[in-house]
Design a protein that fits this description.
This protein is of the alpha+beta class. 27% of the residues lie in helices and 28% in strands.
């Protein structure tokens, strides 16, 4: 008699964000559209299900280390929609939460067991802008850490550009970023919080080929396991000196085959320093100055993907989902 082999249970993947507990995920989200976020995660969860992975939205706050379980979270059921789930064990972690001391031990724990995307080293390198600078000084504009006005005025003498950038050492989405005139800052120093990064401002080369006639832009390159999976410009609104989507920037996609050679050269050099860490999915943000020099501005170990549904054909979001799921499957 022929015996049918039972299929293995799907691997459980905990997607950890800094989400609050509500009936459905993201209901208390304030910065972005709740509907867009829920739709993006729904699409991702259904795609994972087709790849024999069970994605569960959760929070490190709900992890019980003694029992090695997450106390609660949400799954998406195609028939029933979002459903709450309790007391589950994860085979793998997708980390979308901020880097904080509170959960650092958990992240290190999963990183040592190769159970998390991204490994703690890459998250730390991408999250800490000073570490990014110290690791890649050849590529990053001059950056120094200041903690008060006295340190700021002292270090300001080292800055060679007419404008300066002040940003938190940790953070994303342009939160806390200020771009100021250097000479005005000397006469009227701004408030300086602890762990502030003072950085030279890079004036963008005008990209008439892409009709960037005003403002600033950066070029984001998205990599998964060392391969470029997407690339796009983020272009600021007129009169705004930050190009983040969160500050009203628009997205202009560019095929990876169209990326400038000098950008590809730097991507290859930077990635070579991280190739021994797996799984990895992160971004590099570049600016090209008026002399055609490429500068690495920041890195991000938790790139957003929900905006694809607003700015791009479905195939681009599918490519991101495929790369993310592929990186996970190599490690579970």
């Amino acid at each position: 008699m022929l015996m049918l082999k039972k299929s293995a249970k799907p691997k459980v993947v905990a997607v950890c964000t800094d989400i609050e507990w509500t009936k459905k995920p993201f209901e208390k989200e304030k910065q972005y559209s709740v509907e867009v976020l829920q739709k993006a995660y729904m699409d991702l969860f259904l795609k994972a299900e087709s790849e024999h992975l069970k994605f569960i939205e959760t929070n490190f706050d709900w992890y019980d280390k003694n029992k090695n379980i997450f106390k609660k979270g949400w799954i998406y059921d195609e028939a029933l929609g979002w459903k709450q789930i309790f007391d589950f064990k994860a085979d793998f972690i997708v980390d979308k939460s901020p880097l904080t001391k509170k959960f650092e031990s958990y992240k290190k724990y999963f990183s040592r067991r190769h159970m998390i995307l991204n490994p703690h080293y890459i998250e730390e390198l991408c999250s800490d802008k000073l570490k990014t600078y110290n690791m890649f000084k050849v590529f990053v504009p001059l950056s120094v850490k200041v903690n008060n006005k006295k340190e700021f005025l002292k270090q300001l003498k080292r800055i060679r550009t007419e404008k300066i950038v002040l940003k938190p050492e940790f953070g994303s989405s342009a939160v806390g970023v200020k771009i100021l005139d250097k000479h005005k800052a000397i006469n009227n120093p701004p408030k300086i919080d602890k762990n502030t990064l003072l950085q030279e401002f890079i004036e963008c080369k005008k990209e008439n080929r892409f009709r960037f006639h005003y403002g600033v832009y950066d070029l984001r390159v998205v990599l998964a396991q060392g391969k470029i999976i997407d690339s796009f410009f983020r272009v600021s609104r007129k009169g705004v000196l930050t190009s983040n989507i969160s500050t009203g920037g628009r997205v202009v996609f560019i095929h990876k085959d169209k990326l400038p050679e000098n950008v590809l050269k730097d991507v290859k050099k930077i990635e070579s320093k991280l190739k021994h860490y797996s799984p990895r999915l992160y971004t590099m943000d570049f600016v090209i100055d008026k002399n055609n020099r490429v500068w690495l501005i920041e890195m991000n170990s938790k790139p957003g993907f929900f905006f694809y549904s607003e700015y791009a054909p479905r195939k681009r979001q599918e490519a991101f989902e495929k790369a993310l799921i592929g990186a996970i499957k190599e490690n579970v």
